[in-house]
Amino acid sequence: MSSTSLNASLGGQRGTSPHDRLAEAYAVASIDPTKREGPVEELRGSAAQLCIVTGTLTALTSAIGRFVSDPSRLAETSDDPAAVINGVVALIASLLLVFVLLALYGEHREPRGGHRLGPVGLIVALVGTVLLAGDFWFEAFVVPYLADVAPAALGGDPGGALLVGAVSSFIVFAVGWLLFGIEAYRVGRCHGRR
């Protein structure tokens, strides 16, 4: 590269020392767009482990929840220490799902820096997972509090905005993971994986 083209590539900066121009040219030349490092790329290779941990925690909290919580007696059973601990672990498992999504998305990164998976399934699945985590947070912390200060609030049937919010959260979660799964399956089939 000639000094004229180097000067032009540096925005025509005059008056800087040759050392400064050379250092900046090296920095510009060393940027490789195919080697972007970020949170998604850092999770590459850990998708399988995250899936196993998250699946195990989800299965355990679902099974334990059947023994430590009774939906018909929510005010009496929700502040039991075992139910609270189980709720917190369920919350952690739902938050790990965000990292599972990012790890799986990172696994399908193209060598040139793009992604084989489309962003729609990822975005809808992330939104649904965050909504689900919000539900688990509510169950882990707010329900035991309500059981102590306003147990009658837990006895009624949910309706109105609470019911719409809960149902829509689970629908967004299910549809997002379905879209993400279909896209991952399609990409695997197109690239010779099964």
Order of helices and strands: HHHHHHHH
Compute the separation of the termini in Å: 48 Å
Helix content percent band:
over 70%
The rounded Rg comes to: 25 Å
Structural class by secondary-structure content: mainly alpha
Poorly predicted parts:
28-33
Mean pLDDT: 75
Give the tally of β-strands. 0
Number of individual domains:
2
Shape: elongated
Summarize the structure.
The protein is mainly alpha-helical. The protein is built from 8 helices and no strands. The chain has 2 domains: 1-31; 36-190, no CATH class.
Give a structural overview:
- The chain is mainly alpha-helical.
- The protein has 2 domains: 1-31; 36-190, no CATH class.
- 71% of the residues lie in helices and 0% in strands.
- It is built from 8 helices and no strands.
- Helix 4 (47-68) runs antiparallel to helix 6 and helix 6 (81-107) runs antiparallel to helix 7.
- It is elongated.
- The two termini are 48 Å apart.
- 18% of the residues are buried.
- Mean pLDDT is 75; it is low at 28-33.
